[in-house]
Amino acid sequence: MSVQHIQLTVLGSSTPYPSADNPCSGYLVTSGTTKLWIDAGTGTLGPLQQHIALGDLDAIWISHLHADHSADLLTAFYALVAADITRRPVPLYGPPGIAERLTHYLTNGSTPAPIDRAFEIHELHDLHQAQVGNLLLTSRSVSHGIPAFGVRIASPTTSLVFSGDTAPCANLTDLAVDCDALLCESESTAAPHDAPQVHHTPENAGTTATDSRAGRLIVTHVGRSLTPADALARAATRYSGPIEFAAPGTTFAIG
Description:
23% of the residues lie in helices and 28% in strands. By secondary structure, the protein is α/β, with parallel strands linked by helices. The strands form two sheets. Strands 6-5-4-3-2-1-14 form a seven-stranded mixed beta sheet. Strands 7-8-9-10-11-12-13 form a seven-stranded mixed beta sheet. Helix 7 (202-212) crosses helix 8. The longest helix has 11 residues, at 72-82. The relative contact order is 0.16.
């Protein structure tokens, strides 16, 4: 059997809205013939089609329902039900309530929008597992103030963990233990003293990578008050392994 590593292509990594040259959070993960869209943040459907037709996806996985991680599901719906794409519905894994949220937004009139024509929806829960082609997806609840999940994507030979948006938490560290690569969001500053922390700082990302023994750290979703170079430097104070920035359009070979 051929070795099936994972390729991670960054569709966008901006927060909390797209910049002129960087959409919000979205990633294409491929392994062998398996194709997976991870987060559908604002502006990511366009870059996705530079690599794959929407109808050729094996599944979509959404970490949480903030717009910078899910808004392009709305345009994907119209593509799947009202355009030239014949392969549908696409399996969609997302937080509890995702079907109701999409239906509410997309309904224009008295008849509910036919969400099930576009998406075959599966609600996530802690320790949810799904086999998508040759990839096993294991989701863990993470700490973001709303239902939110990280995911471990494992081929027979390789593993990639995506944090979603979260404060440092034991579930994410456990999920990432001994992974080949950790794709971790890295907001620039800690939360105010009177507010709960709901994101990683770059230093937190380095600590999570160290504590989980990740083989590689890919820093993403960097806040606008910080340059990627600064984020990498700050993460490196807590992690001694390879660190890279998830620049839009970059493809990383994992494993």
